[in-house]
Inverse folding.
């Protein structure tokens, strides 16, 4: 018996042998139209399935983002509210004291105000107290104008302090401003 082994020789002869073998194999057989159609339908189905998966993934991402945004809005002040709890506790403790002196109450209120100031500072809630400053309609609300020797439009008195949060006015300061005498 003789084995079917390619003839041994130098490497340069092998490609030539392969090339002649391909030309001697006969004409290439064209796939039938039915085979081409089946192949195209399979490819189309694969693309359709991939598109459906991608669409579902995009919808899931959109829903997850909406949930995250809703949660962020719902719990946006969580840290601020937690920081205010000790202030409330201090106020309740002051009210629970039965035989407190005026001096003790005043001291407790001052400490509570200091706690509240620390919370405001931590969360960048800045007090607007414009006494003696030029009137700024973006930060102040004039409720009266008083004749004065002071330069016109200068804040003379603050009736209610204003507050800003991260450079945005939460509440303008309610003030009276100077106006020229006889004007």
């Amino acid at each position: 018996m003789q084995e079917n082994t390619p003839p041994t020789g130098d490497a340069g002869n092998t490609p030539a042998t392969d090339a002649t073998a391909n030309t001697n194999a006969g004409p290439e057989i064209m796939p039938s139209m039915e085979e081409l159609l089946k192949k195209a339908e399979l490819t189309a189905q694969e693309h359709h399935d991939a598109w459906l998966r991608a669409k579902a993934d995009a919808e899931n991402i959109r829903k997850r983002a909406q949930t995250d945004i809703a949660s962020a809005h719902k719990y946006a002040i969580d840290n601020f509210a937690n920081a205010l709890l000790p202030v409330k506790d201090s106020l309740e403790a002051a009210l629970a004291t039965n035989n407190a002196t005026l001096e003790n109450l005043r001291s407790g209120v001052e400490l509570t105000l200091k706690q509240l100031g620390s919370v405001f500072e931590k969360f960048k809630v800045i007090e607007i107290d414009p006494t003696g400053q030029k009137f700024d309609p973006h930060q102040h609300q004039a409720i009266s104008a008083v004749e004065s020797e002071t330069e016109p439009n200068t804040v003379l008195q603050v009736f209610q302090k204003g507050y800003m949060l991260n450079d945005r006015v939460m509440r303008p300061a309610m003030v009276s401003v100077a106006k020229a005498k006889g004007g």
In short: The beta strands are 125-128, 140-147, 155-160, 162-165, 168-171, 173-179. The longest strand covers residues 140-147. Residues 11-21 have pLDDT under 50 and may be disordered.
